[in-house]
């Protein structure tokens, strides 16, 4: 082999490597490009040239979201999901603001930064313990943690106030190099350097391995539970750092400051190119994602776009950024287009399976197989798996009922308790079917809140208190819901995007639509017939209760006795296996999202009947509970396992617990902690004895 | 890049997004005032914004004030960013509905240092250079609780529905009310739930409390928002209008109409949104505070003396002082009316405390549709 050949081979190898590295970092590069374009746009439309001060302000403005989102990225890389991120930011802010000495203006920056990170890590360790060692599902553990932490935060700092030393503010909000480098950029840079180092350590490799395929990772001898545990601890530390930064930025404490950060962190992670579900992505892209989100706001501000359109614009940016990052010859959209082209060409040539002659091609032994023993095993044996996962919810419910009887009485002696319990659980019970079906396929529907809100506002706006108008108002609302569900399903199936991204964007679109339709203040009120369903009386029962019984029966039959139900479970267990077995997975998935939107619309209508009016944001309190009841009811968040009866039990349990707490005079902070602990207890009862 | 920027400027001007179309001379004299709101989409916020806009478009102000409205949502981070963007854009004054009393301190300080007048309405900003317009929340909690104790004859069981936990307003009102209840041995607080300042949440929470209790077990209600709903629920439960529980609560128009003598002729009344002689004390953080903040900001820019803290008179209406307005003009409200016809205000949750001695420019139409008094 001549020297020239060797050089040539080496240069080809280098090119291939460069191309591969480019392909791998494509989402990050796309995010960077989007950020650059947006920055240029900001500078173009602003009346003044961007000064160092503006850049420094932009940098520190997005730093909190960026830091928290970096923590979230770690968790998502490991295949998890962390709902406690925003709550930890609030807790750290509250701890710092309440514990610092108001007379000491020169408090030690390293010390208090360490305190903040330490508090965050403790919460992370709590999450990590239950997820890694108790093998509980991340989404429920972190949901329970979120409630517990929100309660603790209010115990630490019951209202905005407190003091954060100016030295902390100066350190993080000031300049590392005056007029050249803001401290916030240095802070994020340090975290990125830490990440670039961490990524190359055995832990970093293990993190990606666990996120890509936990079983394979365990099979190669990785101690996956420790990897997961430390991931949550590290993530907690980053939320803590975000909390320190917020404290520096605001100079004081507010127990609610971090709560609105949760959804933006997810959006930042996704825009930054990290795959929900784990194993792919990184922290660098997330930083770009966080700043993209922030700059979009600035651009809307300087263009003076009506606030009604703000969420629509943000959703559009989310979808476009994610699409731009995923479009390639291998993307699901390209697959789908190729598939459609192949289908058409096969159809033209008459080669489709359905076009072949319908002769019986079965093999001999398949038709003549001996009928097996037809005596069924006993009920308990047949349903043991179902019972194993549905009973814990009902067992917890029984405990809560007994506790209520002891504390407040009137549970087993009066029917009024049961009437109120069933009426109040009807909302969650109905949502559980839709959200439950989506979760059974391995998805998640985050568009529930504003589907509820928009449906309620539409129905109140159309009927304006008239019974007759219900005849067309309800079908109109249902038709809108079908459209919402169809678009959600189409986004998941045809664009191949994560259900979380599609439904999160849809939620923003619907919020904008509801604001525009109602012009900021919904008017109109529920028809008397609708009010009667929720608050009237028939044979001593509120009319919704018999309707709920019908709904529950239909829901159980739909999921466990129909072909649709079996397809849902099949997709949840393995979409590929389901497709290869002839399930039209795309059609089923779209149907599932339509079902979820329909359930949310029914809840919107019923809530309007219950309150007499619709209000914006009326669905906001139902998103996390709708997920919680499904999981507490025994469903697996990754899909394939769960029974509607269990979810119904979950809805009853959550409502009974809230009823118990509302009847006491416990401070809200304790209630929140208690609520979180009960959710945790319920899922501990569902724990798998060993991982598969 | 330069050409691009010029192009963009032309585009912006063409869309009318900048004030370039106004003649230069007038633009010089006008104050640039920005309104930074929190979330939109509840009645209180919408009314406050309408009243600010109405005042700015009144002939007393239209030639002097250039008002721009922006909304931050519930996110304090975003409001920080927004206020800074307003300062950068050359604001003379910024009227703020602060999402957090503390989180804005640094950005507000920075704005003050650049000579921008910052004035907060309803909520307070704790940074000393900011001006604040608000009611005394402690007094609101105390006065309403005292009324309830007196109405109950000093003894009985009270249910409390509070606001949004973790906010200063809720903390002050609830603490002041509890202090009053604690001073009376006969008064027991038997249930307490978080109402989030929403009629819908108040109904859900009341339903939970009533799951284990009867209306007959409760003697009085103290609710930051929800008296309208509580009265509706008692009607549904078959309780006669003359035995409704005394309720200390919010200043919604629905609640005010319920306070009118039962049987009075009121245009547009129907269902629970009707005169019931309900025993009530009604108070509110008045939505006109935003408009007053704008007025004070302009006064300050004019060089007049404006106090750092403007405490608004607590708008209290009881069953004795309730009076229906015919048109809702400022003159009519000055004469003492304080509830509006359901035919004019279709939404019972709409806040009725919109009268201020100092703002003859704004009446009912200002709060409803942003139209100033003639």
Question: Could you explain the architecture of this structure?
Answer:
The complex is a heterodimer of chains A (692) and B (374). With 692 residues, chain A is an all-alpha fold. Chain A contains 30 helices and two strands. Chain A has a two-stranded antiparallel ribbon. In chain B, helix 9 links the parallel strand 8 and strand 9 (247-249). Chain B has 374 residues and is an alpha/beta fold. Chain B contains 13 helices and twelve strands. The model of chain B is unreliable at 1-27 (pLDDT under 50). The radius of gyration of chain B is 22 Å and the shape is globular. Chain B is 38% helix and 15% strand. Chains A and B meet through helix 2, helix 3, helix 11, helix 13 and helix 19 of A and helix 1, helix 3, strand 2, helix 4 and helix 7 of B.
With helices defined by DSSP (H or I, 4 residues minimum), what is the helix count of chain A?
Answer: 30
Provide the domain count of chain A.
2
Largest interface: chains, residues each: A-B, 90 and 81 residues
Largest beta-sheet details of chain A: 2 strands, antiparallel
Strand line-up across the major sheet of chain B: 2-1-3-4-5-11
Rounded to an integer in angstroms, the radius of gyration calculated over CA atoms of chain A is: 27 Å
- What is the chains' assembly state? heterodimer
Share of helix of chain A, binned:
over 70%
Number of strands of chain B: 12
Instruction: Give the name of the CATH architecture of the largest domain in chain A.
Output: Orthogonal Bundle
Low-confidence stretches of chain A: none
> Outline of chain B, from the CA principal axes?
globular
Approximate strand percentage of chain A:
under 5%
Tell me the Rg of chain B in angstroms: 22 Å
Shape verdict of chain A: globular
> What is the fold-level CATH name, i.e. the topology of the largest domain in chain A?
ABC transporter involved in vitamin B12 uptake, BtuC
Give a quick account of the main beta sheet of chain B: strands, pairing sense, barrel closure.
6 strands, parallel
User: How many extended strands of chain A?
Assistant: 2
């Amino acid at each position: 082999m001549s020297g020239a050949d060797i050089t040539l081979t080496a240069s080809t190898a280098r090119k291939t490597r460069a191309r591969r590295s480019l392909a791998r970092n494509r989402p990050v590069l796309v995010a960077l490009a989007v950020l650059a374009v947006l920055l240029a746009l900001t500078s173009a439309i602003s009346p003044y040239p961007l000064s160092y001060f503006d850049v420094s302000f932009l940098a520190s403005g997005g730093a909190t979201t960026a830091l928290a989102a970096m923590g979230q990225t770690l968790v998502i890389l490991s295949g998890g999901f962390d709902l406690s991120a925003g709550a930890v930011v609030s807790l750290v802010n509250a701890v710092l603001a309440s514990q610092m000495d108001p007379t000491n203006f020169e408090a030690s920056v390293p010390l208090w930064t360490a305190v903040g990170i330490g508090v965050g890590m403790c919460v992370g360790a709590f999450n990590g313990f239950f997820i890694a060692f108790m093998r509980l599902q991340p989404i429920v553990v972190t949901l329970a943690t979120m409630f517990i932490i929100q309660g603790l935060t209010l115990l630490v700092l019951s209202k905005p106030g407190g003091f954060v030393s100016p030295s902390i503010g100066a350190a993080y909000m000031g300049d590392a190099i005056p007029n050249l480098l803001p401290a916030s950029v240095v802070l994020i840079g340090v975290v990125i350097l830490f990440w670039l180092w961490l990524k190359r350590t055995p832990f970093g490799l293990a993190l990606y391995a666990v996120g890509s395929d936990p079983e394979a990772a365990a099979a190669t001898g990785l101690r996956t539970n420790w990897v997961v545990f430390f991931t949550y601890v590290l993530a907690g530390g980053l939320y803590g750092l975000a909390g320190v930064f917020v404290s520096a930025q605001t100079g004081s404490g507010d127990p609610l400051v971090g709560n609105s950060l949760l959804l933006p962190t997810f959006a930042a992670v996704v825009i930054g190119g990290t795959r929900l579900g784990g194993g792919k992505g990184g922290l660098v892209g997330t930083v770009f994602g966080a700043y993209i989100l922030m700059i979009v706001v600035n651009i809307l501000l300087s263009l003076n776009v009506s606030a009604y359109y703000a969420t629509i614009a943000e959703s559009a940016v989310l979808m476009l950024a994610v699409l731009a990052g995923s479009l390639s010859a291998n993307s699901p959209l390209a697959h789908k287009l190729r598939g459609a082209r192949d289908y058409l060409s096969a159809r033209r040539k008459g080669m489709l399976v359905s076009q072949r002659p319908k002769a019986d091609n079965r093999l001999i032994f398949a038709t003549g197989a001996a009928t097996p023993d037809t005596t069924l095993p006993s009920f308990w044996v047949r349903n043991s798996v179902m019972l194993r996962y549905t009973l814990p919810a009902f067992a917890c419910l029984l405990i809560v009922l007994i506790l209520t009887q002891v504390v407040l009485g009137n549970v087993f002696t009066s029917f009024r308790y049961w009437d109120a319990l069933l009426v109040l659980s009807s909302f969650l019970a109905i949502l559980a079917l839709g959200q439950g079906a989506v979760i059974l396929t391995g998805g998640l529907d985050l568009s529930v809140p504003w589907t509820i809100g928009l449906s309620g506002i539409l129905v109140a706006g159309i009927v304006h208190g008239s019974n007759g108008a219900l005849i067309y108002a309800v079908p109109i609302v249902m038709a809108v819901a079908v459209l919402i569900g169809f678009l959600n399903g189409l986004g998941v199936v045809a664009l191949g995007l994560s259900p979380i991204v599609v439904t999160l964007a849809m939620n923003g679109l619907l919020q904008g639509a509801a604001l525009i339709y109602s012009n900021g203040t919904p008017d109109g009120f529920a028809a008397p017939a609708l009010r009667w369903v929720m608050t009237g009386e028939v044979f001593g029962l509120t009319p919704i209760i018999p309707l709920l019984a019908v709904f529950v029966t239909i829901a159980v039959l739909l999921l466990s006795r129909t072909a649709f139900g079996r397809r849902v479970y099949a997709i949840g267990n393995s979409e590929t296996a389901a497709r290869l077995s002839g399930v039209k997975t795309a059609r089923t998935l779209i149907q599932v999202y339509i079902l979820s939107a329909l359930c949310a619309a029914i809840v919107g209508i019923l809530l309007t009947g219950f309150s007499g009016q619709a209000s914006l944001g009326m669905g906001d309190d139902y998103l996390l509970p709708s997920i919680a009841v499904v999981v507490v009811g025994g469903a697996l968040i990754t899909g394939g396992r769960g029974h509607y009866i269990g979810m119904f039990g979950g809805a009853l349990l959550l409502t009974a617990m809230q009823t118990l707490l509302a009847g006491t005079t416990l401070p809200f902070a304790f209630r929140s902690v208690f609520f979180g602990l009960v959710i945790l207890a319920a899922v501990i009862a569902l724990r798998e004895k060993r991982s598969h | 890049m330069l050409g691009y920027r010029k192009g963009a400027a032309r585009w912006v001007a063409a869309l009318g997004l900048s004030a370039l179309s106004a003649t230069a001379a007038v633009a010089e004299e006008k104050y640039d005032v920005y309104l930074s709101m929190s979330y939109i989409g509840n009645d209180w916020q919408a009314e406050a914004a309408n009243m600010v806009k109405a005042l700015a478009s009144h002939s007393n102000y239209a030639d002097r004030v250039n008002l721009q409205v922006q909304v931050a949502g519930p996110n304090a981070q975003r409001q920080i960013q927004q206020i800074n963007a307003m300062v950068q854009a050359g604001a003379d004054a910024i009227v703020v509905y602060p999402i957090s009393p503390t989180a804005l301190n640094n950005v507000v300080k920075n704005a003050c240092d650049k000579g921008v007048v910052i004035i907060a309405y309803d909520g307070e900003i704790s940074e000393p250079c900011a001006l604040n317009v608000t009611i005394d929340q402690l007094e609101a909690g105390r006065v309403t609780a005292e009324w309830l104790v007196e109405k109950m004859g000093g003894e009985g069981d009270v249910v409390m529905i509070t606001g949004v936990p973790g906010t200063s307003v809720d903390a002050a009102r609830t603490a002041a009310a509890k202090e009053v209840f604690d001073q009376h041995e006969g008064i027991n607080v038997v249930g307490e739930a978080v109402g989030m300042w929403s009629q819908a949440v108040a109904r859900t929470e009341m339903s939970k409390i009533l799951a284990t209790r009867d209306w007959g077990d409760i003697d009085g209600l103290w609710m930051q928002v929800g008296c309208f709903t509580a009265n509706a629920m008692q009607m549904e439960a078959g309780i006669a209008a003359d035995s409704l529980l005394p309720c200390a609560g919010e200043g919604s128009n629905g609640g005010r109409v319920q306070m009118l003598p039962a049987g009075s002729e009121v245009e547009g009344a129907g269902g629970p949104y009707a005169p019931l002689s309900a025993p009530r004390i009604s108070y509110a953080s008045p939505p006109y505070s935003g408009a007053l903040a704008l007025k004070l900001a302009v006064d300050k820019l004019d060089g007049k003396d404006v106090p750092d803290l403007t405490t608004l008179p607590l708008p209290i209406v009881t069953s004795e002082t309730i009076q229906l307005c015919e048109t809702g003009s400022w003159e009519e409200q000055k004469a003492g009316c304080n509830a509006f016809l359901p035919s004019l205000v279709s939404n019972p949750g709409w806040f009725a405390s919109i009268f201020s001695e100092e703002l003859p420019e704004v009446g009912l139409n200002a709060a409803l549709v942003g139209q100033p008094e003639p």
